[in-house]
Amino acid sequence: SAVISQKPSRDICQRGTSLTIQCQVDSQVTMMFWYRQQPGQSLTLIATANQGSEATYESGFVIDKFPISRPNLTFSTLTVSNMSPEDSSIYLCSVSPGSTTYEQYFGPGTRLTVT
Amino acid sequence: GENVEQHPSTLSVQEGDSAVIKCTYSDSASNYFPWYKQELGKRPQLIIDIRSNVGEKKDQRIAVTLNKTAKHFSLHITETQPEDSAVYFCAASSSGGSYIPTFGRGTSLIVHP
After folding, report:
1. Looking at the DSSP assignment, which residues form a beta bridge with residue A48?
2. Which of A97, B41, B59, B106 is the most buried (most CB within 10 A)?
3. To probe the interface with A, which of B40, B43, B53 has the most A CB atoms within 10 Å?
4. Hey, what long-range contacts does B78-83 have (CB within 8 A, 24 or more apart)?
5. Residue pair B30/B78 in contact by the 8 Å Cβ criterion
6. Over 80: is that where the pLDDT of B97 sits?
7. Per the CB < 8 Å rule, is A43 touching B103?
């Protein structure tokens, strides 16, 4: 499976600021996703990062709050904008190698604390 | 859309016992059912999956069964060990849903030595 890295691994941020999380894969992948996992909770899909076009957001998530870039087949960024303490969570990227492939593999996650 | 229910939320067993985690799904079009293990502070890891054309799949001490008629699938862990302690998530997906999984709420498995 692909090797996935995320930066930063953790951060503590002040409310009102923004943080950009990077996800890098060691091979080209068709699908990249961004998830949020709040403490003790399941995985919630934020959006699908589409290469060369705007991301596809799930209900409850908007581009102004979570802008996403996907400039190529190995890299994506998620920005958490105008942060509040409610944004404190773990943010995970995941990849699926092919467009008709079900398997998803997760990055190590970014633990964000907003004070 | 798809809805996945997972039970129990917490499961406590003695080392060597078996553990069973059950999930139900709502969308009859779902045809891929992965299971993820997430250890504390780590990423979810895909441990086993099953597709709708088979009823059971085994990999050493873990197995997954699928009943498409009843729309439920289960994870079975035999001879549990302390290192099996983790949160386990089931999920369901379909090609009609762009292969994006819907996750269950998770089961915290605790294996006591």
Report:
1. A33, A56
2. B106
3. B43
4. B78/B18, B79/B16, B79/B18, B80/B13, B80/B14, B80/B15, B80/B16, B80/B17, B80/B18, B80/B19, B80/B109, B80/B111, B81/B15, B81/B111, B82/B15, B82/B111, B82/B112, B82/B113, B83/B111
5. no
6. no
7. yes
Q: pLDDT, tens digit, for every residue of B35-89?
A: 999 999 999 999 999 998 889 999 999 999 999 999 999 999 999 999 999 999 9
Residue B11, Cβ density class (10 Å: 0-12 exposed, 13-18 middle, ≥19 buried): middle
DSSP state of B42: S
- At A79-105, the pLDDT tens digits run 999 999 999 999 999 998 876 667 899
Q: Which one of A1, A92, A102 has the shortest CB-CB distance to B93?
A: A102
User: What does the pLDDT look like over A24-53, one tens digit per residue?
Assistant: 999 999 889 999 999 999 999 999 998 888
